[in-house]
């Protein structure tokens, strides 16, 4: 399973709000909702988030073995 909990931790550490992602970085609310529910998102979205947060993929998502 893929978990996006590192993404939420990064947002807190960097003091970036969901509002900012939606209104300043054009991340759709539905994408944020998918991340909250650990549902699949595109590699394009992951790339964009890494670019916004200036981080690596491992700072946004992690694999959790079943």
List the main descriptive attributes of the protein structure presented here.
mainly alpha, two-stranded antiparallel ribbon, globular, about 70 residues, 434 Repressor (Amino-terminal Domain)
Structure, explained:
The chain is mainly alpha-helical. It has a single domain (2-63), classed as 434 Repressor (Amino-terminal Domain), CATH 1.10.260. It is 55% helix and 6% strand. The chain has helices at residues 5-14, 18-24, 29-36, 43-53, and strands at 2-3, 62-63. The chain has a two-stranded antiparallel sheet with strand order 1-2. The longest helix is centred in the C-terminal third of the chain and has 11 residues, at 43-53. It is globular. 14% of the residues are buried.
Short description:
The protein has 66 residues and is mainly α. The chain has helices at 5-14, 18-24, 29-36, 43-53, and strands at 2-3, 62-63.
Percent helix range: 40-55%
Please give the order of strands in the largest beta sheet. Answer: 1-2
Portion of residues in beta strands equals 5-15%
Total helical segments: 4
Distance between the termini: 7 Å
Total individual domains:
1
Mean pLDDT over all positions: 96
The CATH level-2 architecture is identified as Orthogonal Bundle
- SS class: mainly alpha
List unreliable stretches of 5+ residues.
none
Kindly provide the name of the CATH class. Mainly Alpha
- CATH names the topology as 434 Repressor (Amino-terminal Domain)
Give the SSE order as H and E letters: EHHHHE
The 3D shape can be described as: globular
Nearest-angstrom radius of gyration? 11 Å
């Amino acid at each position: 399973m893929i978990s996006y909990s590192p993404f939420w931790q990064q947002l807190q550490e960097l003091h970036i709000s969901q509002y900012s992602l939606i209104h300043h970085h054009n991340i759709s609310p539905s994408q944020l909702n998918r991340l909250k529910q650990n549902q699949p998102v595109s590699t394009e979205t992951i790339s964009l988030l890494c670019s916004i947060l200036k981080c690596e993929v491992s700072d946004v998502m992690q694999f959790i073995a079943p």
